Amino acid sequence: MEKQSPRKKQISAALVLGALLVLVGMAVSIGPALAAGEDDAIIEPKSIVTLPWKNAAQKPVPPSFVLPRQSRLGCLACHSNTKLSRIKDGEEQSLFVDPEVIGNSMHEKIACIDCHTNFTYEDHPAKNPKDYWKVAGLACMKCHPYQKLKYEKSIHGRLALEDKKAELNGKEVEPALCSSCHGSHNIQSPRFESYRSEFRLSSKKVCGQCHTDRYASYGDYYHGQAYKNKAKDAPTCWDCHDNHNILHGDDAKSPIASPANLRQACGKCHDDPGESLVTYAPLIHGRQEALNNNPIFRLLGLIIPERQPAEPEPETREPVVQTEILSETPEVGLFARIIGIFFPRSLRPLGG
Amino acid sequence: MLETLNIWVDVVGFVVAAGMLFGFVIPHFIGSIVTGRVKKHFVDDYWDPLAHRMHDPNNYHYKQPIGPDFAPPVRVWHWINIVSFIILLVSGLYIRYPWFEGGREIMRMAHYFFMYVITINLIFRMVYLYIAGDWADYLKFDLDDIKQAPSIMKYYLFIGPPYEHRKKFNPLQRPTYPAIWALLGLQALTGFIIWNPAIGGPLTSLAGGPADLAAWMRLLHNVNMRILVLIGTIHSYLGIMEDYPVLNVFWFWKDPDMAKYEHDEHHHEEEAHGSGLDDERPAPVE
């Protein structure tokens, strides 16, 4: 056998290496395509999802077929697919969960099943989606006991925990769960000033998604007018009505139930309010009505069209806004800092 | 009670503002067109010398430019007042009735900054009143003033000839300025009490607490603002319509062309004859 020259050996080695590289390249490029093919077999866009662990007869497959539950990877194997959806009441409903959103949330390090505590492969999708949604919506109470104690006594919490519906504007609605106000996968921490500011300005979605009439009338008075025009120092709903321990307005313990309670509620912002100041309270949601009842205004109504109290916007039920954490401390300009010296602290620009 | 007053202030404030606009400014402007005053003043550029202090042989303005009437500090003071007043009005209305997003911080800062400016300006004017000694131009009244007042009213109601300017300001105009100073002082005081109710002293317990005092002061601040706007609007309207040459001097250091009025008697006769405005002739000097 003819001995190969070193030159030929080098060429052969280069060819083998080249072939290997080509194979690796093909594997890298074709692999995902094959994987996508597999995905397509499982999840068909705009169609009902066929789950891999259930056979055609919808019987659970042996427990040997499971994806890891203790991290998010198992769930995200399917739910990170933007096309994942289901048909509910004749409408397509996305089941996509953005991994980036969870990664940026305060709960980036907890597993899906920490909130979706009743998840099982055998019952997924859940036979009773409402329960599944409710368990996750209330799972916050596991780790937030202080808020739990308050929520349990609130009108929202009592109805939710007793599995009752709330009656609102003549309609029966689901009572607010933790997630109804705070969001779910996108949850942020109020420790961040940027998020706190943004959350304060999101009461249209937090409270207004159900209390549409109250949110609409909040623009009557200048508290609400300023709030709706994004004034950072204007009171939001829960500044007066309280948050986790919110009570029905007729409840004697509600902060708006009596002048004595109102003095405390108004006192959060106004320095030691007396009896006169709290007489403004009815105007906060009812100024337009009071204006319409004014005799001169009624007379004017004969000349110019009378303005009716604001109509509530259609119920939106949008999720709570996803926010980006901009910075931990607000930025205050040099000019604002200098000018701020001449004004009382409460009137200085944000953070000044 | 506050909540009732809150509604009434808005309703009455709207009615009075609309009344001022549709009951005085617009009708008076139409009246000025119909009686030929607009044409005489702004088309023919003729201002009755006696009524506009340009040819009055009985006082020190005789054949003198009007300029020296208004010392530079007073002119600058007035400019600062105009700018501050407009900014305070716009920012104050925004604070009370916010109409666009995100303006809260800047409007409040502007309001508090110009609060200082206009207050210092007012204090300066009071000091200058003493230094320059022009207090008599604003605060001194005599029997002659009372006698002349009806003729001024008649002129503004289009039922009398132009009145004669005998002093720096006419008897109806004169008390208006001290009134504006007093109202500005009240506005500053109520504003500072809203800013810090502790300034209110014994008023705090009378109102029922610091927040209550601030609420009452806010109401008074609102009412006072409306009165100032009313006076300011009438002052501006009449200043332009009836005293433009003086306003020109006061604002832009631009004295009227006095040579134009050298043969005033002849000019006036022609005007009166040509336009049938015999009744528009100034009343003779008594």
Fraction in helix of chain B = 55-70%
Helix/sheet category of chain A: mainly alpha
**Percentage beta strand of chain B:** under 5%
The residue fraction in helices of chain A comes out at 40-55%
Number of beta-strand segments of chain B: 0
- Oligomer classification: heterodimer
List keywords for this structure.
heterodimer, A: 352 residues, mainly alpha, 17 helices, 43% helix, elongated, disordered C terminus, B: 286 residues, 11 helices, 67% helix
What's this entry about, in short?
The complex is a heterodimer of chains A (352) and B (286). With 352 residues, chain A is mainly alpha-helical.
Structural commentary:
The complex is a heterodimer of chains A (352) and B (286). Chain A has 352 residues and is mainly alpha-helical. Among the domains of chain A are: 70 residues, no CATH class; 142 residues, no CATH class. Chain A contains 17 helices and 4 strands. In chain A, the strands form 2 sheets. Chain A has a two-stranded antiparallel ribbon with strand order 1-2. The longest helix of chain A is centred in the first third of the chain and has 37 residues. Chain A is elongated and about 110 Å long. Chain B has 286 residues and is mostly helical. Chain B has one domain. Chain B contains 11 helices and no strands. In chain B, helix 3 packs antiparallel against helix 4, helix 4 crosses helix 7 and helix 7 packs antiparallel against helix 9. The longest helix of chain B has 33 residues. Chain B is globular, with a radius of gyration of 22 Å. The termini of chain B are far apart. The C terminus of chain B is likely disordered. At the A-B interface, helix 12, helix 15 and helix 16 of A face helix 1, helix 4 and helix 9 of B.
